[in-house]
Amino acid sequence: MKERIKTWVLALLVAGSLVESYYLIYRLPGSDSAILSENLYVKTDNMGPEEKVENLLYPDRMIIHMGGDKHTLFYPDSTFYDLILGRLKGRGFESFQRRPVQDFNWDQIRRENPGIELSFGAGIPVTLLQRVMQLSPDSLFEGESIDRIWIYNVKNDSKAHAVFFSTRGDIVYEAAKADLTVQDVQQHVDFGTNWMPYTAVNGDYYVPEQKLPLVEAELPSGMYTIEQMQSNLFFDAGSTRYIPEKDGSKIYTDSKRSLQVDQEQNWMSYSDPAALPAGDSTPAKDALEAVDFVNQHGGWNGTYRLASTEEDKQERKVSFQQYYGSYPILSKPQLQYGVINLELQQGTVSSYERSLMYTEEDQAVKTLVNLPGGEELKVKLARISSSSPVKDLIPAYIPVEQRESLRLVPVWRVTLEDGSVLTLN
Questions:
Q1: 264 and 195: one domain?
Q2: Is there a single domain that holds both residue 71 and residue 193?
Q3: Which end of the chain is more exposed for a tag (fewer CB within 10 A), N or C?
Q4: Where's the Regulatory protein YycH domain (predicted)?
Q5: What does the CA dihedral 114, 118, 119, 123 come to, rounded to 10 degrees?
Q6: pLDDT of residue 246
Q7: What is the pLDDT of residue 365?
Q8: What sign does the CA torsion over 243, 230, 47, 294 have?
Q9: What confidence score (pLDDT) does residue 42 get?
């Protein structure tokens, strides 16, 4: 009997020791576990679904040149934009020839030659562009980033011309072989015949000849919680501690990583300075790593486009622009919303920023409004140009936070030569 009791006591002591060891290894706040269990990282409610990088790579606008100095524009998520882009994705481009941009008279081509111009904003690496277009680049072209593609016809020429513009600004690459006929290009151009006419200004931007109708939307909104973000960003959310800040923001840290939340701006900034560098880094690889990181740490709460992959000293900044329908949502000092920003060091994400606000797009209340166009818009732009020349003009949305909703107000986004951005509505 005594032996049996001793056996039970010994078993209880062993079991208690194992439980105590478990808590010492895995549950004490701030402890560094020698072994990381997969169960430590439990995904809670995501901010949105995962996304393929191919769905984030598309032009911010499509300019249709019809000859006779006539032009029109198509924007993402519109019928003719989707139709033309879908067809171009299936055509092959190869045998690229490197040429100085001065070899072409672009003003004359813009006025006289029927063509399609795809704008990629700040640019997209060729190795990423290959994921959505049939390109066969050589090693020189493969290392470039492209901010424009111009496909056009030349009078009395039996082949279509396709030119890819390097973001460096002084070099273009012309595809000697393009799987497009002159008839293909003309058919695409003809889609713009009965569309809104635009006037080209200095070859930099385009002004609609009439008022531009846009949808103003009011969307029910909500907030993701700090607990949700902690679960998405830390291996063990229970090991974090709270550090109050004088400016009203909140900081949570597990001694290695930190999460800062600005509750006035509904904005979060995550930092992981101790992240181990992966080593190899290129604009394309960093963009892919950024997409994977967002997929694994929150997801995509809407429609986004890869906006830029800028290199700054030892870091690369990758930004994704949110869209509502055909147009981008602009972040502003009073309300940061509509962008996801990441910084990478040698291929590893060290910083991650985004809004904590979400909207219910399927419950939007929509109203049709008009942005100014024609002479009214030209006069306003002329006044602005007196301080710095206008370099770009595009419709966009300004977010306005209301009690339980977010209102998206249509505006003209005006970019000046000095880099500053203004809005007109």
A1: no
A2: yes
A3: N
A4: 3-418
A5: -130
A6: 61
A7: 97
A8: positive
A9: 35
pLDDT at 229: 85
Question: For 231-250, what is each residue's pLDDT tens digit?
Answer: 888 766 666 777 777 666 78
The total number of structural domains that make up the chain? 3
pLDDT at 238: 63
Residues 63 and 199 in one domain: yes
Do 253 and 194 lie in one domain? The reply is no
94 and 175 fall within a common domain? yes
Q: How many CA atoms lie within 13 A of 416 on its CB side?
A: 14
Helix (H) or strand (E) holding 377: helix 374-385
Strands 134-136, 92-100: pairing kind: parallel
| 46 pLDDT more than 90 | no
Contacts of 404 (CB under 8 A, 6+ apart): 220, 221
Domain range for 173: 55-207
Task: Report the distance separating Cα 346 and Cα 348, nearest Å.
Answer: 6
Q: Which of 161, 176, 207 is the last residue of a domain?
A: 207
Single out the residue of 266, 213, 224, 215 nearest to residue 407, CA to CA.
215
| CATH code: domain of residue 236 | 3.30.310.160
**Residue 12 confidence (pLDDT) above 70:** no
Q: What dihedral do alpha carbons 245, 248, 249, 250 form, nearest 10°?
A: 60
Task: Tokens for 332, please give them.
Answer: 């502003």
Per-residue buried b or exposed e for 314-327, using 16+ beta carbons within 10 Å of the residue's own CB: ebbbbbbbbbbbbb
Token match 């973000």: residue? Answer: 229
Q: Which amino acid is at 75?
A: Y
Residue 33 has pLDDT above 70, yes or no: no
Residues 68 and 173 placed together within one structural domain of the fold: yes
The pTM for the full model equals 0.87
Runs of H (alpha helix) within 65-138: 79-89, 106-112, 126-129
Closest CA to 327 of 107, 61, 122, 98: 61
Let me know: does 172 contact 99? Beta carbons within 8 Å.
yes
pLDDT band at 281 (very low <50, low <70, confident <90, very high): confident
- E strands of 254-380, at which residues? 258-262, 267-271, 303-312, 315-324, 327-328, 339-345, 348-355, 357-359, 365-371
Indicate whether 79 and 162 sit together in one domain: yes
> What's the average model confidence in pLDDT over 349-373?
96
